[in-house]
Amino acid sequence: MKSTLVDSNVLIDLFDNDSEWQGWSDAMLAKAADRGRVVINPIILAELAAGFDSFETLNEILPPDYVEREPLPWDAAFLAARAYVIYRHAGGERRSPLPDFYIGAHAAVAGHTLLTRDARRYRYYFPKLRIVSP
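Predicted structure:
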């Protein structure tokens, strides 16, 4: 059974009725759920939590039985750091969030497909990662 790690930008689209990507994100999330497990990690949950008043409200809107919570693999930390070092040596700005590299590394290490609207960096730094993106 295939699994999909869902980036926060896709989930934010679902909660934002003004998002031009809401239809695409909803359809891709439904396809991912039909194929197998749909997963998020603590970083993705933290990025989502900024838009909610309580953890209970977030869990009501995004129930754990629909979107599984998965811990971050330890070896993903090393892979994320290596990708970030390459990015910085290539002139990448320090303000670029390390969490994006951690999300890509988690998907790569765990063998998940990554569902995201921002595939450019993931494709470059994790070239073997399966990505679903517009």
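Summary: The two ends are 23 Å apart (CA to CA).
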